[in-house]
Specification:
MetI-like, cell membrane, sugar transport, transport, 2 strands, transmembrane, MetI-like fold
């Protein structure tokens, strides 16, 4: 008597995660990368040589409970200074103030800078004079600019109150109004820098693209949205990165206009106050190191979010 052995049920197919394969880099892209390192290498080495020691020294001092008034009483506390700072509510309040100033100023500068870049790019008459006039605020030293705006917003002899009929309104008497004055000074000073970077991006867009879009019936807003902005991703990323890193380290305008009063103190001002005013070198160095780490994290975030593969746009990658 023969028995039939039932066949085993087919096993469920195993799912394999597809592996991403990077497209090979062409010789042109490799040569451009090597050329970039060759050109930027000397400046990078010089920058590391000049800034390396101060950075390492700040990290070393941040590990000690060290006051300038008691040089012999230096005690090693390890990460104690960092724990003190990160558990202090005042630090997070000043982090919020710094972030607020950064977001407001950079956003306004991006919009105004793009508008000024379009004007400079499309100007048919007096183009050189127009560009020079727009770039004048950026050529003024930040301290001079801050003093000028502090004078302008003064409630006794400033021109802002007289211009808008506000009487003797004290702009520096409240937190929000004081922050507004600082943001106005920063936007006026650095918007030309943003427009200069965006103007370089506009110059790289072929006029044929805009003419083709215009022939196809695209409106002015559609040309900006679908032609200009997609081809300016690299310039926008560079402009936002530079200005965000600079705005996050704001110090001059705060020091001149408000001196950190009315809740306008930023992280850079906190490092100054701990190191210079209170002569607590250990805590001040720790704040500086934390600020440097935050700046690096911001840079990494921008590069990851706004990364633009220019070689792929040119067709260097297959």
């Amino acid at each position: 008597m023969s028995t039939t052995i039932p066949a085993a049920p087919p096993s469920a197919p195993t799912r394999t995660r597809p592996q991403r394969r990077r497209a090979p880099v062409t010789d042109r892209a490799r040569k451009e990368r090597n050329l970039g390192w060759l050109l930027a290498g000397p400046a990078f080495i010089a920058m590391v040589a000049v800034t390396g020691y101060p950075i390492l020294n700040a990290i070393w001092l941040s590990l000690f409970d060290y006051r300038l008034t008691d040089p012999a009483g230096r005690d090693f506390v390890g990460l104690g200074n960092y724990a003190t700072i990160l558990t202090d509510g005042l630090f997070w309040k000043q982090f919020g103030v710094t972030s607020l100033i950064t977001v407001v100023t950079v956003s306004a500068e991006l919009v105004l800078g793009f508008a000024l870049a379009m004007v400079m790019h499309r100007a048919l008459y007096l183009r050189t004079a127009l560009r020079t006039a727009i770039l004048v605020p950026y050529g003024i030293i930040t301290v001079v600019s801050a003093y000028a705006w502090a004078y302008g917003f003064s409630n006794t002899y400033g021109f802002v109150n007289g211009l808008f009929g506000l009487g003797d309104y004290d702009w520096f008497g409240g937190t929000w109004s004081a922050l507004f004055t600082v943001c106005v000074a920063e936007i006026w000073k650095t918007t030309p820098f943003m427009s200069l970077l965006l103007l370089a991006g506009l110059a790289q867009i072929p006029d044929d693209y805009l003419e083709a879009a215009k022939v196809d019936g695209a409106t002015a807003w559609q040309r900006v949205k679908r032609v200009i902005l997609p081809n300016m991703k690299a310039a926008i990323m560079v402009a936002l990165l530079f200005r965000t890193l600079d705005a996050f380290r704001i110090f001059d305008s705060i020091f001149i206009m408000t001196a950190g009063a009315q809740g306008t103190e930023t992280l850079s001002f906190l490092a100054y106050r701990q190191t210079i005013s209170r002569v607590m070198v250990g805590l001040g160095s720790a704040v500086s190191v934390i600020l440097a780490i935050l700046v690096v994290l911001i840079a990494v975030m921008f590069v990851r979010v706004f990364r633009t593969d220019l070689s792929q746009q040119r067709g260097d990658r297959k």
